[in-house]
């Protein structure tokens, strides 16, 4: 069994996918727009003018697959009560990932040494997703 994250970007999915491609090397493995659905979608389920919005996408960051959609394309995604965690190979990679994810976002906890990691920080990206970036401590 696997648990996978599904992120709803409320109309900003394609922008988010491009941002993650540049920031963390995400690779989009599948993307389907509402207009490409093999089954007609009821008009009350998709806002007018959303035919080109992303109905479903899958993307990989490293070995992890995530899924995403524009959802109801209301314009403002809200992500509360969770964070995505990235393990970096070393402090230089942690800094690069942290800075890239923080572009246009907000630092919640600066990247620095903690008792469990030589480099740990928390940053909310421009879409409102909280990321925890860390270098795992040697055992």
UniProtKB/TrEMBL annotation:
Boundaries of every PhnB-like domain copy: 3-133
Q: Which InterPro entries match?
A: Glyas_Bleomycin-R_OHBP_Dase (IPR029068), PhnB-like (IPR028973)
**Pfam families under this entry?**
3-dmu-9_3-mt
Superkingdom as given in the UniProt entry: Bacteria
Return the protein name.
VOC family protein
Source species: Variovorax ginsengisoli
